Predict the structure.
Amino acid sequence: MDQPTRQPMDEQQPLPLEGITVVAVEQAVSAPFATRQLADLGARVIKVERVDGGDFARGYDTAARGLASHFVWCNRGKESLALDLKDPRGLAVVRRLIADADVFVQNLAHGAAARLGLDAATLCAAHPRLIAVDISGYGGSGPYADKRAYDMLVQCEAGLVSVTGTPEQPVKAGIPAADIAAAMYAFSGVLAALVRRGTTGRGGAVEVSMLEALAEWVGHPLHHALHGGEPPARTGLAHAVIAPYDAYPTADGGRVLLSVQNDREWRRLAEQVIERPELGMDQMYATNASRVANRGKTDALVARALGVLDAEEAMTRLEKAGIACARLRDLHELAAHPQLAARERWRQVGSPAGPLKALLPPITLPGGDEARMGDVPALGQHTEALLRAVGMADDEIAAMRRDGVAA
């Protein structure tokens, strides 16, 4: 039997999706964030946008040097093609691009892709090697199929808001958790479908709904409620079933979080941080169940011990005791995080507003090319080049621009 060829250790490998072409009729966050992952790993991503303003996420804000922060985050490394898909000429261009593509992604409103003939079933029947991804709010069937599905609405429907916040007030997550969940399952679904195509030669449909993706992420409280009878309580920064596990103020105005995962750690915390070793065996605190039952008193003990220390001293003492801990950082502190700096995770990407800072994606492939972090495109920046690539002559392109079919 032939032995597999070994890759020389010093030979740089290409990005894993080099040579893969993705066409995306996408908007907002869920599909754009999924296809950005593909672009970072080497795929060519052609983003089809409306001629009248493009992806509406371009208009969410102007925080990124005049550009929308959502758009900058989700759309680097793509080619922007601005077309009116209601005009047969615009739709024909997209169909030509899809015919040569490996992956098609869309997150249009329910039924819109089917009306255009861009739904997964239609496309996969015409192109057996194509992987066609439909991202929706609630799935293609069922009583919620036609409902509008924005991130906060799905967070509510998925129960995430019910377990987030304080006892008095449920709150949504501070990030678009439903969009991100759907995006990452679409991304991994594409990768799985590409692996399957490599063995079978056939593509196929990939379906992802925001509700189902986020319901999976809510798995811990869901199973707690299903099998334990009661949903976990909303406890702010505290953990619902572990104590002490919360944020505590320090003398310099900071906040330090700590997590005691077992009773051995509690004994170390009592001895080395609280400096009351007898609490380690006190029946009121000796087990996690007793500490949760006496959460107020437990937290008060920890708060008094940390409240006389500055944040750095508190962190040092906790780490010396082997207690898991963290600083409560704001976003500017995250941007200056010493761990991100030490691992050289920041890069610059181009944009219509000039260079912008961006984090390397968290998938690191040692021994391979670095993630391809391309520019954030202007609306229609690549329209002419792509129209020429599908064989359109100058007069056809001029007519499409004149008629508002392309921009």
Q: What stands out?
A: The longest strand covers residues 44-49. The mean pLDDT is 95.
